[in-house]
């Protein structure tokens, strides 16, 4: 499959997810940026970085298996709702298959399924612990929790500083310590995308104005 077709398949799947649960596409794209930067800091190979990118983009695709009322209701979930939500990890394989996604995307299954496992073995769905969790899932897990907390996917958004303190506290419990350290090195380098734009738009830089003025269609 060509690279173009590969990307088109991923973005078409994300479109479906966004339609079902608005906001998921932005979450997936931000998690992908954080996770790839973290993995790059951890010296993942180029092939593995591409795997992290794709798995991060599709980490919540299994939410297509969950009723949109449950996904879009904000606030605390009851026990039954929580159990249903957990299904989204395992659901990746059959959702990806039913969307006709290619085999190289189906091969992301073991990473996607493990994105809610915890370093101490108390996560789900398989209670994997430590190095039994695929390395790509360990970096996606940190990125996903950070983005969910700071943008307020379920609860009111948390200030960035508080969120970072919570991530630090979860190091060695929910998260691999090395993944947390790498995340802390790259996170300040990434422009916060969740914050609303404040004030009037910035003026166009001089070089951009010159380029714009030089275009024949600018008059
Ligand atoms: Fe998830």
From TrEMBL:
Pfam families: HD_5. Coiled coil: none annotated. Residues 2-199 form the HD-GYP domain. Residues 195-219 are annotated as: Disordered. It comes from the Bacteria. Transmembrane segments: none annotated. InterPro entries: Cyclic_di-GMP/3'3'-cGAMP_PDE, HD/PDEase_dom, HD_GYP_dom. SUPFAM superfamilies: HD-domain/PDEase-like. This is HD domain-containing protein.
């Amino acid at each position: 499959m060509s690279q173009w077709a590969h990307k088109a398949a991923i973005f078409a799947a994300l479109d479906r997810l966004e339609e079902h649960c608005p906001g998921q596409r932005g979450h997936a794209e931000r998690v992908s940026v954080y996770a790839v930067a973290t993995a790059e800091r951890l010296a993942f190979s180029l092939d593995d970085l591409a795997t992290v990118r794709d798995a991060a983009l599709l980490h919540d695709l299994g939410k297509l298996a969950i009723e949109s009322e449950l996904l879009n209701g904000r606030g605390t979930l009851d026990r039954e709702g929580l159990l249903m939500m957990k299904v989204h990890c395992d659901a990746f394989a059959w959702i990806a298959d039913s969307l006709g996604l290619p085999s190289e995307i189906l091969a992301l299954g073991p990473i996607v399924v493990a994105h809610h496992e915890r370093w101490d073995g108390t996560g789900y769905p398989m209670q994997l612990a430590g190095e039994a969790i695929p390395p790509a899932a360990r970096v996606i897990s940190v990125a996903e929790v950070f983005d969910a907390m700071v943008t307020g996917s379920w609860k009111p958004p948390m200030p960035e500083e508080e969120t970072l303190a919570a991530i630090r506290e979860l190091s060695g419990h929910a998260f691999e310590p090395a993944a947390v350290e790498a995340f802390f090195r790259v996170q300040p380098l990434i422009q916060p995308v969740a914050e609303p734009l404040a004030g009037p738009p910035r003026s166009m830089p001089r070089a951009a104005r010159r380029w714009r003025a030089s275009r024949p269609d600018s008059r």
